[in-house]
Specification:
Elements (H helix, E strand, L loop, with lengths): L1 E6 L3 E3 L4 E9 L12 E6 L6 E6 L6 E3 L7 E6 L4 E6 L8 E7 L5 E2 L3 E6 L1
Parallel strand pairs: 2-11
Antiparallel strand pairs: 1-3, 3-8, 4-5, 4-9, 5-6, 7-8, 9-10, 9-11
Length: 120
């Protein structure tokens, strides 16, 4: 139903900042109504399971964060552009991971991910 494309990952120094972006596209033959769905970011550190990072409601009025990123990361969205963002500040080595955005359709749709590496 939806194809998600993440971007913005990079190698960044400890304490630095990055802004990740995710664009949603409707799959051929289907319509994904972006502004009807809450969106989330997940990440998978090297050798570990995928974990929740942040979520935002369909209209953007409510956000939720993992304890490990609370106060450092900010999730936002632009429904007109069908995009969701993750502003990451004060990055730490433990933030090194593949970052994925997720749409709650079909049991959960993820993009291909974007890699963030924080050098210490």
């Amino acid at each position: 139903q939806v194809q998600l494309v993440e971007s913005g990952g990079d190698l960044v120094e400890f304490g630095g900042s990055l802004r990740l972006a995710c664009t949603a596209f409707s799959c051929p033959g289907s319509i994904f109504t972006f502004d009807k769905y809450g969106m989330s970011w997940y990440r998978q550190p090297p050798g570990k399971e995928r974990e929740f990072v942040a979520a935002i409601t369909a209209a953007g009025g409510t956000t939720n964060y993992a304890d490990s990123v609370q106060g450092r990361f900010t999730i936002s969205r632009d429904n007109g552009k069908k995009m969701v963002y993750l502003q990451m500040n004060n990055l730490k080595a433990d933030d090194t991971a593949m970052y994925y955005c997720m749409a709650p359709t079909g049991g959960g749709a993820y993009g291909q991910g974007t890699k963030v590496i924080v050098s210490s």
